[in-house]
């Protein structure tokens, strides 16, 4: 009898994470409360807006005293620092336009301790996105007009694949929607114009170049 070829196994979250070059730098000051699976709705993409590498970015967050951080910072060479566990809230998206909690379905701010938070004006009073999302920072300056290196974009693809697999295993039925920071808060610079095509591809195929691998 002919043997049927085994179908390729879907990689587990653990296998996908093992493919990434992630180092953990969890700090209690970056953790603002629980994020149950039912509230994991978004992945928010950011530019760091500094030439400093991920280590420098994390250290500057810690030194700032405003308890801001993202879950992940992706270096230009594809190496990654994780600062906050996937099931905890980080202050990466900050305040959004008034009305955006309603628009994005992120109205419950009660799980967020809001430590370190300073209001920025009545035009941007909504804070819910932090409680419903994962934040990914890419080391990049939006005003320099530079392309994102391939190694960084591939790492972002693989990181999103890992995040999707992790939450699917936890019971998430619809993959997180991918947005960028300026979609949440008007006037923000990130992500840059150079990322627009990649963002569109990630939103549809979850790979930066639009091809399914
Ligand atoms: Zn940002």
Hetero compounds: zinc ion
Helical fraction: 25-40%
Mean pLDDT reading: 94
Largest sheet: 6 strands, mixed
Element-level helix/strand string: HEEHEEHEHEHH
Shape: globular
Strand content: 5-15%
- In spatial order, strands of the major sheet run 1-4-3-5-2-6
Structural class: alpha/beta
Uncertain residue segments = none
Distance between the termini: 32 Å
Question: What is the gyration radius calculated from CA atoms?
Answer: 17 Å
The total strand number stands at: 6
Number of helices: 6
Describe the structure.
This protein has 213 residues and is an alpha/beta fold. The chain is built from 6 helices and 6 strands. A 6-stranded mixed β-sheet has the order 1-4-3-5-2-6, sandwiched between helices. Strand 3 and strand 4 form a beta hairpin. Helix 1 runs antiparallel to helix 4. The longest helix has 20 residues. The protein is globular. The site of zinc ion has 3 residues, from loops. Zinc ion binds next to loops.
Offer a quick outline of the entry.
The protein has 213 residues and is of the alpha/beta class.
Indicate the topology.
Blueprint: H1 13-19, E1 22-24, E2 42-47, H2 54-64, E3 72-74, E4 80-82, H3 100-104, E5 133-138, H4 150-169, E6 177-180, H5 181-184, H6 196-204
Parallel strand pairs: 1-4, 2-5, 2-6, 3-5
Antiparallel strand pairs: 3-4
Bound molecules: zinc ion (ZN).
Zinc ion is lined by residues 46, 181, 190.
